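Quiz preparation item.
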């Protein structure tokens, strides 16, 4: 019996080693990009760190719902279907050619963005916009497939189009703070709140699920400050967890405005999987994110991926504590 168990572990290690070689040979640039950011040799076949888990997600976890999450229009519809109480910024127009945007749509305060990308946005204040420049930029967006370079495959099948949204305004200015809920296993790990004033000064902070501020490291800079949270914060946590329920890990972005909660977007690959600077949060994410809940390890796989999925699942059962275990609870309290 012992000999059989040892033999099984040996086979699993061999399968994982061969898979690791495949990752480096088949996706050298994506692996290099991960190494360049972390300066640590990644392990995409037996991922343990936060960075490696995102690399693994890029290479293996082809959850079809990731495409919905990367599609701004589709994710809005999903969010409203799951939580009808939510609000979203009103979509005033969508299409593949920005030259067809009706002139009156660009009057006032709106945001022009790509449905299929990240940070492809143009802010229009009081109708002031360089239409020639807008057409050039949006045409490039429509021609490009976002995320291809860094292995963010879920954008591949997202509908390529341009949309114009109303700009959420708070007392005459664009809404100042966005709350980014990092959710693993239907539980909020932490919340990142970021705001920028009219002078371009940024203020940001991390918070626990119960609203307690997470102190930054000593060299984080003056931008990290504690700020009052909205009265709807606890409800925002519940909504983010409900919206993120189909995923093993997801970042869900929300706004709070005049007592109402607005859905912004999902982030399947936040910052393309770069590491978190806060050491305690990085450890918390590493332990809280249970890959056994992922699509790849939950759905039947074919060919050599089936062998790899079985080997990885067995190794994780041996090495990874259960999500919500004492180790994870201890880490949650450590970031207070």
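Solution:
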């Amino acid at each position: 019996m012992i000999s059989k168990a040892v033999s099984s572990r040996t086979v699993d290690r061999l399968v994982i080693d061969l898979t690791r070689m495949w990752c480096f040979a088949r996706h050298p640039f994506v692996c290099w990009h991960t190494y360049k950011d972390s300066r640590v040799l990644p392990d995409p076949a037996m991922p343990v760190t936060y960075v490696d888990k995102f690399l693994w997600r890029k290479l293996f976890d082809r959850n079809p719902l990731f495409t919905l999450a990367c599609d701004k229009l589709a994710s809005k519809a999903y969010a409203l279907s799951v939580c009808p109480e939510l609000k979203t910024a009103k979509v005033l127009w969508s299409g593949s050619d920005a030259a067809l945007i009706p002139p009156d749509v660009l009057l006032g305060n709106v945001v022009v963005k790509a449905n299929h990308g990240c940070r492809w946005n143009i802010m229009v204040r009081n109708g002031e916009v360089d239409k020639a420049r807008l057409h050039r930029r949006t045409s490039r967006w429509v021609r490009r497939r976002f995320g291809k370079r860094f292995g963010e495959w879920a954008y591949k099948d997202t509908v390529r189009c341009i949309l114009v949204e109303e700009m959420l305004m708070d007392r005459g200015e664009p809404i100042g703070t966005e709350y980014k809920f990092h959710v693993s296993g239907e539980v909020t790990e932490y919340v990142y709140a970021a705001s920028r004033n009219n002078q371009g000064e940024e203020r940001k902070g991390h918070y626990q699920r119960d609203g307690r501020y997470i102190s930054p490291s000593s060299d984080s800079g003056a931008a990290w400050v504690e700020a009052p949270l909205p009265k709807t914060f606890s409800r925002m946590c519940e909504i983010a967890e409900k919206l993120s329920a189909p995923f093993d890990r997801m970042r869900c972005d929300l706004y709070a405005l005049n007592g109402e909660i607005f859905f912004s977007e999902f982030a399947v690959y936040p910052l393309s999987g770069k590491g978190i600077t806060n050491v305690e949060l990085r450890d918390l994410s590493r332990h809280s994110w249970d890959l056994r809940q992922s699509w790849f390890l939950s759905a039947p796989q074919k060919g050599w991926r089936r062998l790899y999925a079985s080997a990885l699942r067995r190794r994780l059962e041996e090495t990874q504590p259960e999500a919500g275990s004492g180790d994870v609870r201890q880490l949650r309290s450590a970031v207070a």
